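Shipment paperwork, digital attachment
Item: protein structure file
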Amino acid sequence: MRTSFISYTLALASACPAPAIAKGLRNDKTNVLIIMTDEHNLRTLGCYRDLMSKDQAEIWGPGNVVETPHLDALAAKGVIALSAYAASPISAPTRSCFQTGLFSHNTGVPTNDQVMKRDLETFAEALGNEGYSTGYIGKWHLDGDGRPQWAPKDKFGWQDNRYMFNRGHWKKLEKTTDGARVGAVSPKGIPSYEVDGADEKSFTTDFLCDRAIEFMQANKKKPFCCMVSIPDPHGPNTVRKPYDTMYQHLNFKEPYTYNERGDHGQNGWEKTEGSFNSRQMQLYFGMVKCIDDNLGKLVHFLKEEGLYENTLIIFTSDHGDLCGEHHRHNKSVPYEMSARVPFVMHCPQLIDKKIVDKTAFSSVDFKPTLLGLLNVKAKKPSEGSDKSAYLLGKKIPEKKNVVFMRSATRPGAFEAGGDTIRRMSWVAAVTPRYKLIHTPNEGEIPWLIDLEKDPNELRNFYNDPAYARIIRRLSADLLEYGRSTDDKMIVRTKIKEELAAKMK
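Attachment content:
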């Protein structure tokens, strides 16, 4: 029978058996397909633009948009999360949070190019224990600095990781009798990021999605969890034909905040850097369009194979890309388009209407939430929360509607005797409206951002008496987060005293 997502959630909450499966479906468990992009500004996605004011949706100039009909179709009958954040907006740390449900300072991956602790349980391992076939395809970035390093030895529950590569933003891949390899090389024979004539079979986005289809085809008689991790639209901003010229007619403008400084300039994470280039944005849009077209290919396969009704499709990213906002590019700071990520869920068997959700959700919540949706028990606890009921429409209590983010730090930076990374260390408590941001460095001040009154994040409301209550509440939340997760950035620096002062 077709069962509503809300009814399904109530069934989970009361420990009742899972609902009956629609006629013709291949197994009695919900399949999972996760598409994760890399460094993705959510203003490039139509389903998110539709929920913004015109000036926010078209921040690079009127009419400068990329259409994403395939993702929009999923969001139109699914869950679209408006307050989803990277727990640490840089690649490897937040990916470790996503996999394990732990904060990055507890995964062994507080910054890029570290090896995730081998005794951790991922959601893939938990699903494998329940009879799922699990396959990971694409960028991993949790096994040190190897590049590309195909099929890392430590699988972390991903049974088929033949097409997993540790790191790199390769543009052309190919199959060989010895496995996958990068299809473009430098004159010295070193793997290269060049597009090098890549086509609809060898361009990385296409190649990885084709491998995902092969995995799902091979495992369609069992429940499966397939994760395809696409390294675009992260730079270098290059893409295959015809996407490389698809948006060259657009003349991109600098975002409003490119030169407008507001109250900024006092802390490391507020500093400006980089320049703005219209051609780079044309190519960024091309990469996004290629991703959406491949999403359409994945959905078409599921429909053709009778798997669509019974597959939970999740589309998200590891972190954002400022694309010129605040005179910055890339990520690593607590601004919205750096730290906020797209998060869309769709499953016809489970979701019977569009849900636009404002639950504060983080990558550290992903594992417990996914397992909660599937009624699967983890063997090891998470530091994140199961927010499945809230994402599906249940009202979340205000005191629970908060998540925590932190900057990447080198291992041991805040241990006894360690020093901080001075330039961009920060930790934040985030709700759908507010961000309380603290830094551990002397001379740098706390910030409170009010996204409702100041969506451009130019004003600091920290010293405004009207915000005393919310600052006191978020200060208490941050203190408890620091204590419960042993985040040394709080417990060993001036942040602890700043937070405690607001509790008096």
